[in-house]
Amino acid sequence: KQESRHQPEVCGLRLIESAHNNGLRMTARQRGFEVKDLLSLTQFFAVDLLYRFLSKMKAQPKHLGCVGLSCFYLALKSTEEERNVPLTTDLIQISQYRFMVSDSMRMEKIVLEKVCQKVKATAAIQFLQMYYLLLQENLTFERRNSINFERLEAQLKACHCRIIFSKTKPSVLALSIPALEIQEQKCVELTERVECLQKHSKINGRDLTFWQELVSKCLTEYSLNKCSNPNVQKLKWIVPGCTAWQLKHSYYRITHLPTVTYMVP
């Protein structure tokens, strides 16, 4: 019931898909790069927030960094304890973005306004966790090891980097991933469980098959050498020595950020 209330607007997603790389409008490729940055921080709620905002608001490429960081910060504040949330100034300094704290605060207000103050939505990762637990119920130890959650989560990350998957319901995408894995294993018992989950989730069989095929295509492309694997890709922010010195006393607050590389000029 919740997921349909937070779906990105299809008309907005189509505008992103049709945009040309002329610096005036954000393209699907540029959006994909921003999602990869957010996924390297394993913030699925930030990605969902980015989806919903960009489907309602026309964003220029030069503003995308501010939008992405604002979505990440809003998601962080809504999911983590206050003591684990870094200061906005620290985030901007480490990220090396060229905007002010006031710009970030203004962007946060715009994002909140466009998503109607609802930061946390029903995300695909929540469905994936639920489906995984239900599929694992009462299985033998050997059979449980046949499905690895970390692998499923990595596959979901790969799908999130493609704008096409913004158009499907989180429940459908989340079920498509383990369903594809189980289909390849040809396990009758787990196949029956997928069918049961499909029925209770009110997912059309043809829709599930359609999205399974797209997931399969996406994962095949990500397995090629020319594609980066979002599960191992790490975002590294390089900061100058003076910035590193300024941050060293407050670094303990930044517990959820990627690896920081200190570069002394």
Automatic annotation (TrEMBL):
InterPro entries assigned: Cyclin (IPR039361), Cyclin-like_dom (IPR013763), Cyclin-like_sf (IPR036915), Cyclin_N (IPR006671)
Signal peptide: none
Keyword vocabulary terms for this entry: Cyclin
TM regions (residue ranges): none
The UniProt record lists the keyword tRNA processing: no
Residue intervals of the Cyclin-like domain: 24-113
Record-linked Pfam families: Cyclin_N (PF00134)
Keyword Transport: no
Family of this protein: Belongs to the cyclin family.
PANTHER family linked: CYCLINS
Name of this protein: Cyclin-like domain-containing protein
Source organism (scientific name): Aotus nancymaae
Lineage: Eukaryota, Metazoa, Chordata, Craniata, Vertebrata
